[in-house]
Input
Amino acid sequence: LFSIGWIVAVAFGSRILLNYETAPGRSGAVAQNWPGSRIQPTPGRATLVMLAHPHCPCTRASVGELAQIMAQVQGRVAAYVLFLKPEGAGTGWGNTDLWRSAAAIPGVTVLPDGDGEEARRFGVETSGHTLLFDTRGRLLFSGGITGSRGHSGDNAGRSAIVSLLNNQPAERAQTFVFGCSLVDSKQIADKR
Amino acid sequence: MIPGPDKNLSENGPLADRVEELFEQQRQETFRNTDKLFGRLMLVQWAVGILFSIYLSPRTWTGPSSQIHPHVWAAIFFGGALSIFPIWLTRAWPGRAFTRHTVAVAQMLMSALLIGLTGGRIETHFHVFGSLVILSFYRDWRVLIPATIVVGLDHFIRGVYWPYTVYGVLAASPWRSIEHAAWVAFENVFLVIACLRSVRKMRFIASRTAKLEASEEEARSANRAKDRFLGVLSHELRSPLTPVLAVVSYLVKQTSQLPSELRNEVEMIRRNIELETRLIDDLLDITRISNGKLELALEATDAHLAVRDAADICAQDIRTKNLAVEWDLTASDHWVMADPVRLQQIYWNILTNAVKFTPADGSILLRSRNDAQGNFVLEIEDTGIGIEPEARDHIFDAFEQGERSITREFGGLGLGLAISKSLVHSHGGCLVASSAGKNAGATFTITFKAVAPERIVPATHPISPKQERALRILVVDDHADTRRVLANLLRARGHEIFTAVNVATGLEVLSRESVDVLLSDIGLPDGTGYGLMERAKVLQPLTGIAISGFGTAEDVARAIEAGFAHHLVKPVNFNQVEVALSRVMSKRAFGGDPVVETSDELQQAS
Output
């Protein structure tokens, strides 16, 4: 009886964990063209923007994947990581290893996103959400660059971005995003 | 190299059963120990999982607000669900097959969880290989089966439906799962071989252990047989001496009535019988010491008194050799914790040695003192033949007297010093010998820890010849000469004597005659003196005096248990018998329970 109970508990726990790991975050209403952002796209180069939460543990894998993308595309893209900085956040808010890791990637510019204004402009609600715009500001790709929550490794988002930057067709233009929410629960409720 | 089956260990019957028993014991111990190991390992894995989740993903965020990350809850509750049951099994049912198979499954599930949580990192897959190795510590290859099934199923199922959780890729070929399973099988082949070899080795060790145990038991049995043989031999050697010593000791008292030419001869017979007795005693003592069976009745003992008593015993030999004995007993603390009889034996041995090896007209100095630690130190210094430097290391070895010429000249077995050294050590003391060399004399120094003196209680019932009266005595002994001599000597003392040769005739006498004293041998043809005493007490109230060739502490205890009041060890000096009878009469005159006394105590009293 104990054994059956144990097997049931283990199976139930595995199911819950698997559901959580594979449950994507909200995708939001993503801008299809370059919005009126304070970032100025670099003429003649595609622009990649990742919206991220500096404290989100799941985004660590996304930053790792971004590093791999940047290594593969060798300067063919101007990349930005915009870290959420809520209103009233202290000076230590952005002092995280995630911020430092992103800043250490060659070709990546890290900027704070005051009160999530840029995230709203781009229509992004989940940390790790990555957007790729072409030289004319048209959205080429939108989604996450990890296969599941916090998991590094081969994934559809990374493959798509690398293909597009190599002027090759991408299998997918959209993927699920796995990460913390950039929007607080009150805002989500208001939106609903 | 793993040993093959030992052809010399072809076990059958009880030995085979014992081999199987030992083998199973060893297996169970291995199972239990490995269960314990896994119990701890799983606890550590669980704790480490929680700590890692807290370190890596402590909180999940929603904008500016946060809460505990689900990974932390998963590590606590899911990790707990995975670990607690097998941990409980290792505590509640250690050693059972169900426990180790559950542990195997749980450990592999833990591997699966870790692989999943790390997104199929290839490095995490090493947890599977490491776990399989630790599972092989059970030395039961069967536990690898459920473990392998779990690993295989996990890889195949997740490889098909959630490949990124096991391989970190979006799509995985089924061949990848087969390849992983093949590596697990590859490792398993060697682990199974290792398990089988270990089991074979365990069986080999069990076989050897059983053989050793059997040999040890045989040796013990042989030792017990030897002890029994020594006991019987002692009895048989002493018995013929009893009547001779009894007569001689009686004659020595009557020297005034003997012709002058016979007086020295009688004394010579007594000395030689006593020497013979001493040699038998020494041989038995050295056997007891080597077997570790020497028993000591320790009590606070006056060492000065012991050394004076020992000197008294040697007085005749000292006079004969015209040796000058100088006394310098100045130790203020001269009480030691010792067996009084053995203490006197130690001093007597050393003093006898000094007398023996000191030429006529020489001198012996007996000096006592207390050293800086407050120990009692006795030095016996002689002007004898001395000890050569090369012999100094061996003089305390049994059967060692230095040069062969010394043995020829002075006689003896060379046991006295060996016995003394062992006795001193048994008392926690120290015996050392020093000498400036050949013909320069020797000094033996005996050191004991001094203790507070014992309060002396004066005897309440002094033995007085005035209390003597005729007793009715039954003498039971199968040795005709002993029986006849004791009867004659006791009759000569005015007692009324009955005799019997065995238990049956003894009981027959007791059934028709009223007796005061039963004087009985222990080893009788149709039973034992113990049995006779037990039945005699039922028939009538009497006092028992055991006369036995069996003189160990166990023999004395057995005699007391049977109801004897005195225990005399053969060969019996007639004086000891008289003292014992005096005590019986004293008891009858004054009342009270008889006091059990051994022949040594009676010897001192006589």
